[in-house]
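In response to reviewer comment 3 from the previous cycle, which asked for concrete evidence that the modeling workflow produces usable outputs, we include below a single protein chain processed end to end. The sequence was submitted unchanged, and the resulting structure tokens are shown without manual editing.
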Amino acid sequence: MLFKKQGTIYETLFTFEALKRNLDVFNPVGDYSTIDSVVLNPAGKCFRVQIKGTNCTLDKNRFNITAGVGPSKSLISATDVDILACYIQPRDVWYLLPMVKAAGRKRFALYPIENSKSRWEPYRNNWDIFF
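The workflow returned the following structure tokens.
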């Protein structure tokens, strides 16, 4: 499947999950922005979200997400995006990473397994980050 099409699927899945949690989602027209969605919580706070996903595993428990932007995969900064939403398709799991914690990183190794000791584990399916 083409990468653009797969990206659109991940963005649509993100919107669906956010709407189920009483969050409003606004998507910019076009694909020129670092921001894939803007999420508005019930209190009126906005979050700029970049959405990434993968359906490939490096081994049975590790999934890598590259969170760069554009053809050269330029680094995303916390001044551009508030939340990096990473979808692990084979496990149907979201990691909602605050960019202030992920600053200076472009690649993320995610381990969606029970008792994972990954630094990103507190953000697995943590939709409360928007509240």
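The helical segments are 3-20, 99-102. We consider this sufficient to address the reviewer's concern, and the full set will be provided in the supplementary archive.
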